[in-house]
Amino acid sequence: MARLLIEGGQPLSGEVVVSGAKNSALPIIVAAALATEGKSVLNNIPRDSDVGTICLILRSLGVEVYFDSENRLHIDGRSLNSYQAPYDLVRKMRASFYTAGLLLARLGKAEVPLPGGCAIGSRPVDFHIRGFTQMGAEVIIEHGFMKAQCKELIGTNYYINRSSVGTTINLMIAASLAKGTTVLENCAKEPEVVDLAIFLNGMGAKIRGAGTDIIRIEGVESLKGIEYSIIPDRIEAGTYIFATAAAGGDVVIKNVVAEHLRSPIIKIEETGVIIERGDNQIRVIAPEKLKAIDVETAPYPGFPTDLQQPLVAAMCTAEGTSVIRENIFDRFRYVDELRRMGADIKVERETAIIRGVPQLTGAPVEVTDLRAGAALVIAGLAATGITEIYGLDIIDRGYEDLEGKLRGLGARITREETRNAYDIFEQIEKVNA
Ligand code: EPZ
User: Fold this and answer.
1) 164 within 8 A of 192, measured Cβ to Cβ
2) CB under 6 Å to ligand 1: residues?
3) Which CATH number fits domain 22-231: 3.40.50.720, 3.30.360.10, 3.30.70.1150, 3.65.10.10?
4) Separation between Cα atoms, residue 400 and residue 242, nearest integer Å
């Protein structure tokens, strides 16, 4: 079992370069397989395990997918030939459900397991399925699979009950090749939705309104592969902002679109952190002591749920009491781990009340979900003594070389491979012999 060892109390300094956005890469990789003319070449794709998983899922559907020596991802959808997505891969990640939109659009048939993903409460896909149904697909749920088919998808007007990133993306993918025009209302406005629309339009799709509540997609006959570079990861950038705020120091974060981080930047400035916006980069200068703040998560452009946990970790040692309300997911399980490090946090339904303590102390802790992993790393950087973090495969799902990048900023952080369960059996056998 691998673990991270962090010796806290070291302020961060220097420069860190943010990778491409995982949550943009995943839908764009899937959408690339819509093309029946030429292949797509994608730049700025992060090397995290969710990206690896989506590539394997596409391969299992017959799509040609490979990285070249310059780290560009090639995707050729012409060879797509299977409508059955494999359970062992799909269960790992919710974004794998985007293959449903792809398969319905390309083959008129999809059998996709209901997806898994991070343990952050119930995460249904009912909005996606209702959208497919309204576009003319016959859908049944059987043995844990969504089985859907249609002669062709037909454009429709669909109101998404709650602004949902995944639903907006899946239906944009499906509607790009549908017959007629689809109008999606109450759409998610996240930068990743806009990035996908720009990519699809480059492939020949006709999408207007991405980034607003209403997206209009005029279906086209076919799409072609293109070369494209995806946007930087705003959540990874936000993670380094909160890490610097918590550990102290002065850090320049490169490959950032500051506009995508408006609300986290405004909130972190309230804590006393100084942010200097530059060209494609920001500089973060931490104060001696952070001031407590109140924050609510909300769909973009509100404060992102994916930064709620890093924020809470930073607020553990702020002066005063912070009140953080989580409106999107059930995402406070990790708080128990922060308490083990000395944090004073009370959770009442969707709200965490954090009384700042003078100091966190290192402890062994376990990652419960991706951004909780980032939060524990941040807490470890701020704490005195050694923090041991277990459950690294969850962090690896969405961060490319988190510990390497933090080490580059002066953090004392190492990854250690410890004995796994099978090693223990080996030892037992030796004793018996
Ligand atoms: C995306 O998840 C992101 N994942 C999440 O990032 C992110 O936290 C979330 O959007 C919110 O910004 C990817 O992009 C791969 P939603 P998604 O559909 O699309 C409810 C991370 O850490 N809902 O916008 O799954 C849902 O339960 C991950 O990188 C339904 O009820 O989120 C939630 O309360 C975690 N039925 C709300 O809508 C549905 O059919 C918004 O979810 C769909 C959603």
Assistant:
1) no
2) 23, 26, 94-95, 118, 123-128, 162, 164-167, 188, 304-306, 328-329, 370-371, 398
3) 3.65.10.10
4) 17
Among 55, 118, 150, 316, the one annotated catalytic: 118
Work out which ligand 1 atom sits closest to the CA atom of 120: 35
User: How close is the Cα of 165 to the center of ligand 1, in Å?
Assistant: 6
In whole angstroms, give the CA distance from residue 342 to residue 316.
Answer: 9
CATH of the domain spanning 3-19+233-420, picked from 1.10.10.10, 3.40.50.720, 3.40.366.10, 3.65.10.10: 3.65.10.10
Q: Evaluate if pTM is beyond 0.90.
A: yes
What element of type H or E holds 234?
helix 234-247
Give per-residue pLDDT as tens, 192-226. 999 999 999 999 999 999 999 999 999 999 999 99
Nearest C-alpha neighbor of 348 from the set 360, 367, 332: 332
Catalytic (active site) residue 118: yes
The tens digit of pLDDT for each residue in 9-67 reads 999 999 999 999 999 999 999 999 999 999 999 999 999 999 999 999 999 999 999 99
32 vs 226: CA distance, rounded Å: 8
Q: How far is the CA of 125 from the centre of ligand 1 (A)?
A: 9
418 C-alpha to center of ligand 1: Å?
Answer: 34
